Amino acid sequence: MATIDLWVKDGYLSTPDGNSIYFWGFSASPDGRAQVPGPHLVVRQGEQVTVNLMNTLPLEPVSIVFPGQWPVSVDGRLARPQYDQAGNLVSFADHAPPDRGVISYTFTPERPGTFLYESGTHPHKQVPMGLYGALVVRPADYDPGDPAHKTAYGFGTDTEFDREYLLITGEIDPELNNAVGEGRPYPVPRFRPRYWTLNGRCAPDTMLPDRVPHLPHQPYGSMVMGQPGEKILIRLAGAGVDNHPVHPHGNHVRVVGADGRLLRGGTDLSGRRFTVLVGAGQTWDLVFSWTGLGFTPENPIPTVLPNRRNLGVGDAGWTMWSGSPYLGQKGDIPVGVVSFNEFGEYYFMLHAHEEHKITNWGEFPGGMMSMVAIYPSLSPAVGTLP
Amino acid sequence: MPALVRKDLWVRRGLLKLPGAQVPFWGFAPSPSAPPVLPGPVITATAGDVILVTLRNTELPVPVSLMFPGQTQVLTRRPATRWKPVSPRYEAGRMVSLTDALDPGTDDWIRYQFRAGKPGVYLYQSGTNPGVQVQMGLYGLIVVRPLGFERPSSPNYRTAYGARTGTGFDIEKLLVLGEVDTAMHARVAAGAEFNILDFAPEYWVINGRSYPDTDRPDYDATLPHQPLGSAVAAKTGQRILLRLVNAGFLNHTVTLGGLHGRVVAEDAFPLASSELDTTYEKTAVTLGAGQSVEVIVTPGHPGEHYLRARDYLRIVNVSSFPGGMMTRLLVTA
Amino acid sequence: MGTVSRRYGATDGFVMMPDGTTHYIFGFVDITGVPEHMIFESRGRAQLPAPLLEAYEGDDVYLTLTNLGMPGRPDLDDAHTIHWHGFPNQIPLWDGVPEVSLSVPVGRDFVYYYRPRDPGTYMYHCHFEPVEHIQMGMVGPLVVRPLIEKAPGYAGRKFAYNDPATEFDREYLIFLTEMDSRAHHLVANVQEFDWTEYRPNYWLLNGRAYPDTVKPAGAAELPAQPYSALVSVRTGERVLLRFVNLGYQQHTVQILGIPLRVVGEDARRLLGVHGEDLSRRRNTLYLAPGQTADAIFTAPEPGVYPLYSTNFHRNTNDGSSFGGMVTEVRVSPRRARPERSRARPVGRRRWSHGDNRPVGERRVPQHP
User: Nearest by CB to B318, which of A115, A188, A260?
Assistant: First the structure.
């Protein structure tokens, strides 16, 4: 049985262009900071989960809904929508009253997969404000020590993986956040995102590691790392209000699951795509693998690499390129360009293909973009969820 | 025996009632004295039937037409012409209507006829200046039943697509999605110009209604132009067939209130046959404009849920929650 | 296996819309085989979309990118790249992302290489400042043909994939993009554009807006938009439509009266692990940016079947309707001579001199 405590708090998000944006988020402890997305929740199929919600917002009730998990109970009865005295719907589930109210939800995930959790109260406001996160349900037979049982959907489901990443998409219109923070009405039809996020961060912050000190409210990075030939499970969850076409460079992904269900009912429907539309409120489980084309210094590329000084290397004085065509090799980088390449690793961009979404308020690079990094060798500790 | 299903539709002006607004609209009416309704009257037929629709317009000063996406070999005629295949209309070499249209003050009527070849839910819409006319309300639904749908001894009895398609159901709900730009409606209804680039809806509707009106019963007396509710009441274990059709211009994502449903048909093509079952489960489905997705939800437990747009900025009426594209699903033991 | 060698120039140019307006673009122009001392005559002659790149699976494809510079923006020294969108296992060197490999400055060349292994419909585009360069028009279609076409018993026939169920008689490209003319105007005038304000006012099929979409390939009045979007077929023919979305919006398109069978998505045949045919039948195709779909239909009775966006507010040219993402499927009777118009010219043509004659060194067998 898992017990998870979530505190609803407020805070300020940081964007790479220097903006600071008021938001509401979940925190995993009474002393912790609000974060977006909320803590990645990882539980096990068949084990009862209790989520205790403490609401520190002074004026707003808050609830959590768990799409794909039902029944959810509160105080031993089914969770139910909440209405005000005039009969207007307030919450899709029992809520924690404002100013230190509490509520407790209990459910038992029946099936493995990737799910969202999000505010069910005034969701037109609370979800864009940051009250969302993801829930990973491990299969009952999950065993990270046994490759055949380190799977997304259970033994024999062809969903084995070597590393896994959870990427949650979202979007931010700072005007909404400012209006909410200042208690002003917000004209909903004027919603216009200026930032698009992966795990609450905009590029290039998406490529930073987890829990960097200067992003205290955005603890999760989105850099996908692995080795050639590995099966990298990418769990994509659409927490925002828009659909986002996510395109990984480097290879097709095999789409194996959607909304917490293996894509194999009567027929195996898993398929390979080079762009996956992450629909609002939906999740997709993708297996990415990069095997390369076999080029090594002994089996060289069939083109002549011209003098680097005749070419553009990097952008604005920096590059993530190694200077070499070959994995694990480093080559010449022209004077004046800084290479952030560590071990001759390969980088493949992963980004929303609605290209205005890879900006920070219009400035490229930014937004919903990260990288898939293929390293010649990599610690097995990289690419794990709690 | 295949039947001839006749339907008469009059294009008429009406007034939509949305929470906090009265909005002029153009709709289809079943008679010249009946109120126009949104969506238009449901045309029901059995696979193999011939559907013959007669369209009349005595109120609007513009050409109007009907088109039938998903149907093939649609024929048309006017009082003085013979049946011929539908075709776009041109003026000065440029298409002005996707299909044959009825001009105001000319013929009394235009007819369209086609064989409803296969079961499913389909839209009918104006094909003339659809960027204006479909938004104004000129859309409706056709439901084609499999043969034997009403015969308990038939394997197709109470199925959406016939035996072995996994589409047997206990409860059926038509959910036609759309959006309403009230400023556009006001301008167009007044005969003023409207720049379609300014299209910016602020009401989000299921069957022409925004929440909380979606929760009202069918044929509610206070909503004479919006006769269809969308609330669902079911018992545990019942198979609820949700027939989602996007009649709007925008793409919409609908969540199933936190429940999983099985997607059994897309664009009126069933996903399962006796050879192959390609159905799959989802908690939310995204519909492109003009698309349909049919989901069977079989709740295993009681509960009160809201089917809703997952773009949460569309479960408001203008700016206020609750509203918009949302309806209640109540499951009792 | 063959070798495909092409040389594309990156430059700028102008496209025309049916309302008589002209818009500044960035783009590519085919300069394969052009003598070195003449390549600069192609400056300012970018086309939209970029030239169709075709290969057979297993071919060695060498694409030389030459940055010809922007005569319309002499101040702009942007580099360019080629990103082959969807080629599996590419190495960063040829993936075209400047932040993680190389880009091509003005006046320089670079050779991109790939040996495609999977037939289907792809796209390519510049990935340098992609928000600007893609919207400005540096986008093109890419088709990889299946080897089954060279197999005994299948020679002379055409297939989308290595699967007899994907055989077709004719193929057409339906390449979806949009244009926000304010952005193009500002870029032309060395001004900043806030890309979060992106609101297109033209919607394009093969670089053209209706009614230009139905004009023939290589129409003289559209020198920078050589590809027609008119689908002209005969009753009973199997027609392959190769859909590409390289805009910034999700699009839904429909052909009134013709259902589609989607046999492939993102250059993968829709097959189950046990070979089950997972083709999707659709009345409306929903395509997100960066996706492709291959759809086959059998041409019905003679007539004109309009193809349009079901996002009806987009079938407009800057507010004037019909326009935008509208074209026609014209079906003629079985025995009639086909119309000459094609979705794209056969082989390679040089539009820069108003010469419609193909000068390509290699003609891929296509329309009968």
Answer: A188
